[in-house]
Each structure stands twice: as C-alpha cells, then as structure tokens.
Amino acid sequence: MTSDRKASDATVALSRRSFLVKTALAGGGLVLGLSLPIGESRSSSAETFEPNAFIRIGRDGQVVLTMPYVEMGQGTYTSIPMLIAEELEVGLEQVRLEHAPPNEKLYANPLLGVQATGNSNAIRGAWKPLREAGATARIMLIEAASRRWGVGAGHCRAEAGEVVHTPSGRRLNYGELAVEAAMIPPPAKVVLKNADEFKLIGTPARRLDVSGKVNGSALYGIDARPPGLKFATLAQSPVFGGRLKKVDDSAAMAIKGVRQIVRLDDAVAVVADHMGAAKKGLAALRIEWEDGRHAGLSTRDIARELEDATLKAGPVAQDIGDAAKALAGAATRVQASYHLPFLAHATMEPMNCTVHFRGHECEIWVGTQAIARVQAMAAKAAGLPPDKVTVHNHLIGGGFGRRLEADGAVRAVEIARQVDGPVKVVWTREEDIQHDMYRPYWVDRIEAGLDESGRPVAWSNRFAGSSVIARWLPPAFRNGLDPDTTEGAIDLVYSLPNFHVEYVRVEPPGIPTAFWRSVGPSHNVFVTESFIDELAAAAKQDAVAYRRALLDHNPRAKAVLELAAEKAGWGTPLPQGRGRGVALQNVFGSHLAQVAEVEVAKDGSVRVHRVVCAMDCGIVVNPDTVQAQIQSGVMFGVTAALYGEITLKSGRVEQANFDTYQMLRIDQAPSIEVYLVKSAEPPGGMGEAGTSGIVPAVANAVFAATGRRLRKMPIDPDTLKT
C-alpha cells in the first residue's frame, strides 16, 4: 500500500508478478523469499529468484514487502512490517507494502494452507518466517559490505538501514549494497533476536495506513475507477434458490443515465453512468420472481430441524473419561439447551467488485480476504483459464469473514460479460443484508454432573449446525468434524475429568452459511461460558471463584481471570438493576478473560456500561493494535448480544437495513479497559477473540442483575421486564 494515489493507481495497472519481475530485471537489487512451510522457494540471482513472498530492496534503499495478507482494519499492514523491520534493522517508515497477487503456491497462509486472511492467524503465521526473511536480508547485506571493505563480517553491524564497520565507523546504506547482496547465497540458517533485543516489536507503533485513510488517498475496492467505468446495482431473488420470471424495464430505461438492463437466471442488474441513476433504475423495474422450493421456509423450521438433530448421536469431537457413567452417579445434574441465531456481516464497505471482461481476458478490482479463490471462481464464471484473470486487491472496509467468499466477484463477472467496458457492481445495503452468507444457526443440548461440593465431574455436549469448513475447505473436514466448528467446545481451559462432545452436521435449506467474526468460537464460547456459569449458580458459588478452582493446571488462564476480576472490582457492590458477568476462553491461540457490567432497565432493555478485558496473547507485536482489536471485537460482540439476528419468513430474510438489523450506536458504547499480560509465548490471534467472549459475559451479567438465565441470543427485552 502507498499513500500516494498516483503510485497506487500505477501498481494496479499491471499484474503484481510482472511488476516484481520487471523491477528486478530493470533496476537490480535484493529480492528475498520467505521460508513459508507451504510450497517451495529457490534462489539463484536477483533476476531469477522466485520466493513464496518478497522483500525487495532497490538502489534507493526502499524496503518493499509484497504482503500475503490483507488489511481490513485490524492493523496487519503495520504489525507484519514490524516483524521484518525488527530483524532487518530498518525503521518502520522505510517499509512499503504491495498486495500479493493470487498465487496459492507462493502466498498460502502457512496455518490454513490456502491464500487467505482469516482465523486470526496473520501474525501467528508470519511470526517466524517473516522475521527469518528480515534476518536473512540483514546477514546478506552485512556480507556484501564486508566484501566491499575487505573486512570480516563479524566487524560489521546493521543499524537504521545501513551497514556500519564498527572499528572505522564507515557506513553504506542498504540501497548501495542491494545489487551486491543479491549475488550472495542466502545463509542456510539464521539466528533470530531474543525478546530482550527487540527494538520495534512490543512497542506501540503508529499505523502505516492511517495517513492514507485520513487524506483519502487509500484505495478500497469501491474506489477502483478504470477508464470508461460504468456503475451497476442489482436485485437478486428474494428467496435463495429462486429464479427471475420476467421484468418490465421500460420505466427504468427512461431514466437519464441508465444504459442497460442485464438479466441473469436469478438476478437483474441496472447499468448506468453513475450509481444514482443505477439505483433509480433498479427502483423503477417491475420484477416478477419464481420463489422456488424454499418459499415457505421459516427460521422456526430450521431451528426445529436442529433441535431434532441434537437427539441423535454425532461424530465425537472429544472424549475424556466416561461422561455417561459419571453423569449417572452425580449428586446433581444440570441440563440446558442453547440457541444462537443466523447473523449477517453488515460490513461498512458494502459488497462491490469492478470487472472489465474483454472476451479473451478479464480484469478485476476488489477487496478480498481470499484473492486466489476470487481468481479461480471468477475464471470459472468467465469461462477463462485462471491465468487470463488478473485480480487487483485493495484495502477492505470491513471483512469479518464475508470477504473470504467470492460470490460477489462471481456475480460481478456474470454482469460484466454482458457489458461493453468496465463495470463496478455495488450492492445496496438491502441486498447486502438480505443476500449475505450468514453465521450458522446453532442448537446445543448440554448436561453436566456435579459432586456433593458442586465441582463438575461430568460434561456432555451435543450440538448441531452447519460446517462452513466442509464447503469452504473440504480437505479440513474429516470424519464429520472440522477444527473451526469445534474450537471453543473442546480443549476447554477447565479441569473436567469426564468430558464428551459430539457434533451433528446439519446444513440448513434455503440460506447460505459462512464464516463470521470469531467463527466457531462465537457459538461455542457462548455455550460453554454460559453453562459453566449455570454450574456455579447450581453449586451456589461465586462465578469467578468457581472457575478459578478448575484452573490449577492452566496458569495462563488463571492469570487473566484473576487480573480481569481484580480490575473490574469483582465482588464489590453495584446499584440495583446492575450485574457483572465473566467469561474465560482460550481460542485463536490466546487466553482472554472479560468482565461485563450491565444494567437492566424496568422495560427489559439492557445497557452494557463497562467491559474489562485481560489478555495473554503471547508476545505482543504492537500493543496499540492489540488493544484496538479487543475493543473492536467487544463492540462487534455486544452488538450481536443486544441486537444480532437474521430471521426467515416465507423464505425471505426479514431484516433489510440498519433500522431492522441494528448496530450499537456511539452513545451506547461501553467503556472498555484492556490489560495485557506479559508473556514469552509465541503470538496468538487477536482479530476475533474479543468477539467470542463478550456475548456470554453480557448474558452472565444479565443473570447476575435479574436472576434470569439467557439461553438464546439476542437478548429479548420482553423476557426481562420487571
């Protein structure tokens, strides 16, 4: 990314691969491959080096990182360059970013095995290989300088983008050494810095993308404007699986600026000179739909199917001891059933994609979390081989998992095939919410047994819902299970001697499902942390003390629980109508405890006043980014707890815009405090952890305030009226 709009426009005018090759050939310099555990890299000379991802240093000393991850507000484009800059001994301001082109072999996420940004693992995946890349570059530059000076490399050091000969004080900047360094064989092994040697990692770094976002030069997908651009917006069948029957476009075509009506099997689009004309044209269309077989579908139908599924055995996700036997002999048995609704993403930047289809080739401008997937699916829709489809990635105005999907790009290609010249397809907010791919609906049937002291001796959970992984990454779905669907339901932080969890896959008819921020844990942590709270209540014990007693084997979890409780003032009096709730988790490789303080009014409305978070996410790369991520995740989760629900009636999504799919307003935002535990463990994930834990914390706080247990989200004020 660059803050210079002209430079940004230039970089999208040719493929990233050709750009890199041409730069290496024309200017000379040092180009390095990252030793990612996916695919292979080889090195010979600067002209032929083909790595998995790139550091490029030109004669001007500029460090260019071809970024295999995307920025969607989470701070990746600051934190990941910090890894390279740390080991390369350059200032963060010396690193410039370019989006990686679609290439699964070179740029696959090492933790996913595909080219994608998601699952809170950009830093986790980049932690070692990008530091190794920086260290490798530093060693090669030092060797180049030592050869030029005719001195031993041990007498030289790197600092601030230069190599210094320590005895004499002579200096050469990296640009002066780049060509020579490119001719030096990379070392077989590098030694990385110890944590006590870090200069950048662990310090609050100003985000590199802020200036461009403030001055308007930052380019999002919706900002793409190739010459001759037309605009389009669309209406899709209001029932998933429905078809377009007929359309009267006479009134639409009479609107000034409307150029064309594009008919597809299940959609119709209006192409115009500008978005205003396209929207007016769409409103003027008279459309008749064939609803198809899902016309009578309701949310209640889907919920009933899932409830029935929890009565049947499913694949075992985890089995410890003998839960059935322990339940039979327990002094007390506690049972519960939980429901979690469909949720939309509602990203601030609506779905959009710009496509120029030229018959023999296709060019795409989009903001995507999975650029290689977009290329592959767009190529199929265009009837072209993938190498004839060029995809330019951009900044993303909110992903949350929605832009791991390629359906928006596919739809834009389908429209562009009927349009002469480039066309930007922008979904209205109504289309965005009513044709999203939703967080699955979940039903859990869970039971636990307690001994005479109230300590859990058995835990048994069977839950039913969709597996997004089974569709999105089939090889990861094995024996009826996948790691996303079960994360947060198994491998709990607590000591539970007899533990049994089953998952029953049920794909709902008539509504597509997809990843949603914090994915599997957004469901599982709500259930497990709500239910452990129920066990504490059944045992007539304090919720924090009850959890703490089960954490002797897990010091990291105990530390964040105790810190959050202390900072929140756990146990101190609150005004009538207020309560505190706690939730604890270890998901995405990070330990997080959250305490929510809520107020329940007489009309049943709930306000979250304060949230206290204690996080152990291993080594912190950028503490400012970590804090911002937790704050963002909390806001996302509180919104879901209070308002989030997508419902179907007669096969149609009932919510359409922010009046019916409400967001948390700025005057409703809670005070959020974040405390970080110093840790020497490798970094954990941050982008989604804050979302999964806050929902049960809020629900448990409502129980503390009212005595009413919430087993279904979102919170229904009618059930809480005094």
Automatic annotation (TrEMBL):
An example molecular function term from Gene Ontology annotations: oxidoreductase activity
Q: Which InterPro entries match?
A: Ald_Oxase/Xan_DH_a/b, AldOxase/xan_DH_MoCoBD1, AldOxase/xan_DH_MoCoBD2, AldOxase/xan_DH_Mopterin-bd_sf, N-heterocyclic_Hydroxylase, OxRdtase_Mopterin-bd_su_IorB, TAT_signal, TAT_signal_bac_arc
Q: Which organism is it from?
A: Bradyrhizobium yuanmingense
Q: Which domain of life is it from?
A: Bacteria
Per its UniProt record, what SUPFAM superfamilies does this chain match?
Answer: Molybdenum cofactor-binding domain
Tell me the protein's name.
Isoquinoline 1-oxidoreductase, beta subunit
Where the record annotates domain Aldehyde oxidase/xanthine dehydrogenase a/b hammerhead, the positions are: 215-293
The protein's matches in Gene3D superfamilies, at most eight in alphabetical order, are given as: Aldehyde oxidase/xanthine dehydrogenase, a/b hammerhead, Aldehyde oxidase/xanthine dehydrogenase, molybdopterin binding domain
Q: Name one Pfam family in it.
A: MoCoBD_2
